Amino acid sequence: xxDATSQSDIPAKDSIGDYFLDLWCHTSKTLALRPETGxxxxxxxxxxxxxxxxxxxxxxxxxFSVVGPDKLSLLYTNVNLHGHDVGVVQANHPAPxxxxxxxxxxxxxxxxAKGQIAIGxxxxxxxxxxxxxxxxxxxxxxxxxxxxxxxxxxxxAFGPTFTTGDTVGGGINYAMQEFFFTKNGVLVGSVYKDVKxxxxxxxxxxxxxxxxxxxxxxxxxxxxxxxxEAEQRAKQQVKIDNISIPQDASYGIxxxxxxxxxxxxxxKLLDIAAQSNVPPISVAPENGVSGxxxxxxxxxxxxxxxxxxxxxxxxxxxxxKWYPQIIEDDTxxxxxxxxxxxxxxxxxxxxxxxxxxxxxxxFDKFKKSSACDDLVKDCAALLAYDQPxxxxxxxxxxxxxxxxxxDAVNAIILSTNPNVKDPCLCKHSSLERLIRQxxxxxxxxxxxxxxxxxxxxxxxxxxxxxxx
Amino acid sequence: MSLFWIVIRELAEIQAMATSKKVITxxxxxxxxxxxxxxxxxxxxxxxxFLVTEGYVEVAEKFRLESGTEPEIDLATITDRMxxxxxxxxxxxxxxxxxxNDLNPEILDTNPLLFFHLQQQRMIELIRNxxxxxALEFAQEELAPRGEExxxxxxxxxxxxxxxxxxxxxxxPVSELLxxxxxxKTATEVNAAILxxxxxEKDPKLPSLLKMLIWVQNQLDKKxxxxxxxxxxxxxxxxxxx
Lengths: 468, 242
Known about the structure:
The complex is a heterodimer. Chain A is of the alpha+beta class. Chain A has helices at residues 2-26, 28-33, 225-241, 249-261, 264-276, 297-308, 312-322, 324-327, 333-348, 352-362, 370-381, 399-415, 430-447, 458-463; strands at 65-67, 73-76, 87-90, 101-110, 118-122, 138-142, 147-150, 156-157, 167-173, 178-183, 186-192, 200-205, 211-215. Chain A folds into two domains: 2-43 and 247-428, no CATH class; 65-215, SPRY domain (Jelly Rolls). In chain A, strands 1-2-13-4-9-10-11 form a seven-stranded antiparallel β-sheet, with no helix packed on it. Chain A has a six-stranded antiparallel β-sheet with strand order 3-12-5-6-7-8, with no helix packed on it. In chain A, a hairpin with a 2-residue loop joins strand 10 and strand 11. In chain A, 40% of the residues are buried. Chain B is mainly alpha-helical. Among the domains of chain B are: 73-197, Alpha Horseshoe (Serine Threonine Protein Phosphatase 5, Tetratricopeptide repeat), CATH 1.25.40; 207-242, no CATH class. Helices cover 68% and strands 2% of the residues of chain B. Chain B is built from twelve helices and two strands, in the order H-E-H-H-H-H-H-H-H-H-H-H-H-E. Chain B has helices at 3-20, 26-34, 40-54, 57-67, 75-89, 93-103, 106-109, 112-128, 132-149, 151-161, 180-197, 205-221; strands at 22-23, 224-225. Chain B has a two-stranded parallel ribbon. In chain B, helix 3 (40-54) runs antiparallel to helix 4 (57-67), helix 5 packs antiparallel against helix 6 and helix 8 packs parallel to helix 10.
């Protein structure tokens, strides 16, 4: 049996070590790039999309209307004769998708001869000589009659008319799949968004001297978008709040999180508190899919404390005593992480010469991956600064780095449990698995919905304060 | 239309539904899961938020030391809050009211419903202890004037006074008022009010995260078949149902 475990043990060990090295690349480093923003920084900002910033002058309907030199104003200069000489202009980019709401406003500077101004959304295939809403796959709120047009020439009762001096807004609510419109800061109404694919904010003028200016967010909006967003979010939240979950589910997850991470003292106190709780909370003592959750609890606690107090030599010797198989291969990723931490501790103590010697002796054998190289480079860069903690690699001296190394050691010890069938399960606590599942589900749901809507962010939940 | 055609059409619909659902295998899904990076700090904060909001003050203090996570509010305020909660849970309502007022007199001043519920609980405790005369006096002097202000208070008051009308209170129609769950209900209400007065959310964030998981999985079920987490407590990934 010992043969079998030690054989299957080596790849598992490396996969766990590599996983945490990868995690370092993703989290510590990203954090380091934006030390100023600190906790406020949104970590995975791959959400950035191009946004409408101006009117599109290339693709606008020639001759009927003139876009001002700022590309934010539109004037009808001709005399309109029929329904195919509308001065309609789209924004230079479609409305961004990966968010909950998109919104823009127009200000009617002059309602001109007939006040046939419209605001709405159209697709890239839209015929740019017609009012938004008159053609298929478009939607528009028209100023002269206050009607809403959706894909044909017949409007439906919607809201008030608008004219000179009015500010009118058009928006998309991706969560509810709605278009909504506002007038002078007040919500007029919303309709089901039956247009598929990306849509462009669109403005139209259709009689002599009609003039509007467009606000794509470069100036503050008249409509209180923040309040509207909070209101919409609360609506969604009510549906979620009404879902029932097992009463002590959260307690069980916290408990297994403490077990997984080897926060033994906290766990003990939580168990005492649970017994004196009214009514007492009972949770099955063994939960978690990674086998018996209490495995090596106090050993893991001790090693975590050693790493967190910077005693890396002792960590190595203790591991050598309790789990020699973990560090027997000195070129494994886990050893690499520990050596880096030792180097960091030497820098912290101001023992720079010793750090240089240590680095030269230990780092050379790790040339396996670019991630290793990156970490070595960052470690070495600590030497270049007079005050390394304030440098761009100062994050290495922070608690998060220690925690990461401690987490890696913790996971590897968990994987030495002979009852563990799949060592990969040792990488994550059940809390982390739940968060990963929520995040992946939200992303998948969005991608199956034409990329519309916002992603799930744990940081937003953590930041959100009480709701009124 | 003959039954035959109805069946054919239904079959076609079922087939269309089945084919329009995207099937995501376990391997594909695990790859997606692996792309999700969760910050340890954030998980620690989530756990700390749970301990603080639920009032596990000693546990939170230990967790601060073991994990290096700073609690979002002064832990001393938890101690006071839990003392109030405990007092209600063990039936010392007068004591609880005094403690709440020591903490912040505005809490009860601005929250007439909570104050009424505490007074109601006080009367229930008097009845439980067989102090019928004291209970009656209390109802007339303290509760009745409040009932006049508010119809729903009045109904609650009548329900409570009804306890006095029965010989065998344990089996009377309003016996649930004497149940321990009534104390817990009141205690939870006070707890929430104190948290709100400290500009803190009354509920921990973790349960709403779990609800979100159930919600989003149900939503995604309509469009895709993928490995779900059915049992929150183990967080085990099930195989996708094809």
